[in-house]
Amino acid sequence: MTQTPATAASITRTKPLELALSGSWTVRGIGRIDSELETLAMPSGAAMVIDASRIDAFDSAGAWIVHKLLHRLHGASGQAEIRDLRPEFVRLLDVVGQEIAQQASTSPPDAVKPLNKLESLGRGTADALEQGVALLAFVGESSLALGGWIAHPARIRWRPILYNIRSAGFDALPIVGLLSFLLGVVVAYQGADQLRQYGANIFVADLVGLSMLREFAPLITAIIVAGRSGSAYAAQIGSMAVSEEIDAMRTIGIAPLEMLVLPKVIALFIALPLLTVFADVLGVFGGMIMARAQLAVSYPEFLDRFAKTVSVTAYLIGISKAPVFAAIIVTVGCFQGFRTHGGADSVGLQTTRSVVQSIFLVIVADALFSVAFSALDL
Amino acid sequence: MNEPSPETTPAIEISQLTTRFGDHVVHADLDLLVHPTEIFALVGGSGSGKSTLLREIILLQQPASGSIKVLGVDLENISDPAALALRQRWGVMFQSGGLFGSLTIRENVGLPLREHSGLADPLIDEIADWKLAMTGLEPSVGAKYPSELSGGMMKRASLARALALDPELLFLDEPTAGLDPESAEEIDRLIKKLRDLFGLGIVIITHDLDLLWQVADRVGVLADGKMQGIGSMTELARLDHPAVRKFFDGPRGRAAQSGVK
Fold this sequence. Notes:
The complex is a heterodimer of chains A (378) and B (261). Chain A is of the alpha/beta class and 378 residues long. In chain A, 73% of the residues lie in helices and 8% in strands. Chain A has helices at 27-30, 33-38, 60-77, 87-105, 117-151, 158-169, 173-197, 204-242, 245-252, 256-295, 299-309, 312-338, 344-375; strands at residues 10-15, 18-25, 48-58, 80-83. A four-stranded mixed β-sheet of chain A has the order 1-2-3-4. In chain A, strand 1 (10-15) and strand 2 form a beta hairpin. Chain B is built from ten helices and ten strands. Chain B has helices at 50-57, 80-87, 105-116, 121-134, 151-162, 181-198, 209-214, 233-238, 242-245, 251-260, and strands at 12-21, 24-34, 39-43, 65-70, 73-74, 90-93, 169-173, 201-205, 218-223, 226-231. The relative contact order of chain B is 0.16. The chains are: A alpha/beta (378), B alpha/beta (261).
């Protein structure tokens, strides 16, 4: 056990029936000695002697290997003897011997069999179904709790609502503004070439106005918020679940849904439409700048055309999507947070899931909106 | 200078240690000597700086001034390779386990061996199983994940991991906190057994009076930034310092003391 600079353990055959061990038979000294031992030729029928006098350090890993060597020699020749091992090392070797005997007598625990393809497909499907049912239950419970708040407004927790409006809404203004501005620039820039060919420069206002207000502004806002706040919801609730804070809340008599979920729902219902309006403004502004630079459409001309062609309906259609996106983001984020169990690993996994699923569902919902609006001729 | 022989190198040697957090002084000129192969217990009230001291000893935190030598190695300005080598010579069992959630218990215990030795995987698994058995865990526990274990089992698994490299010095942070009396007694026995078998030094941070009376060779009481008393429990029982008296007066202190006599 004393600290010696690890001279590598080595094994040499001094006589046909004698093996000499030397060096540090410790974790640091053993290195690859056990593969060397595997290839060692075993004489059969003759008694082997192991000279251990030059072992100068010995730990449990070393003892384990030496014991296995002895065991193999026993198996090959029926006899083996270890000689001149220091007394303090002998004790360790004995303990290891007892343990190996015990491990051999108790049957090893059943190895976990890898699933075959069909079984893993079945389990995957069952898991997905179970998750779907749990999500539905979560939506139901949250709706009931929300109904309770509406019936008894005195129970509404204003402070977390305001806090969430700030963190999910106000704090997101710079990034939402910047990205939608750039999106407006890109749309105008991409359209500029085509429009110029037909001398239809002024239609850039239609292009930018309709695409930003109806599609891009709500979508980009929802995606940013899903990445920014949806992940934060999942991580916050998830780490609270891991550290038993949610159980503590229940014990104290605070409904976790009312404390953690509903304020986020209400806050995002308010914040996401407002962020969308902000994105509308900045997106159109970006397009307007590009229109002047690339197509020589002045600001008054642009705004004049914009007011004539882009109806209030287009604006309202864009805004009307925001509450639906908000519901998706909060529900998925909080739901995945509550499904966290175990440790830090699980928090990361559920957070990833929440972002992937909420962005996926936001885009699916947007596609459904497009189908519905075209059926309604809006 | 002659190299001191390992038998006489103190396990831990701290002199003039001062630690500050901003204006708050945690340790003021603290001196401490822990002998090799002794079981030393560090006690003190909450916020007395026990855990900070432990963190400084195991290279997780830097003191403001003073010197700490562990196993004869000075921790001040220690080089990275030297720190790595030193870290392999001690094992630490953290209060809440510190087991990696993404690995099974067997992998957790085998991890130090896998990192620092060239042993083959089956051999590492066998040694890990042995260390688990040594700490009193069933073989079936090895395949489980930390989140599936009870608090007591986590502590044992964490201890098994601390023992993976056959350390010369073992640090136990609250080894019996949160355990039922029976498990706590087993930990008492286990600590003694480990010392006898491997001849290692053990430093325990604890509030457990039974553990102090049954297991510790010497106990150091930390209060007001200094060691207020060091000695065996019987020696400390005669001291008349208020910080020390707290551990003996009061019903629990008396009960634990009478359990020994």
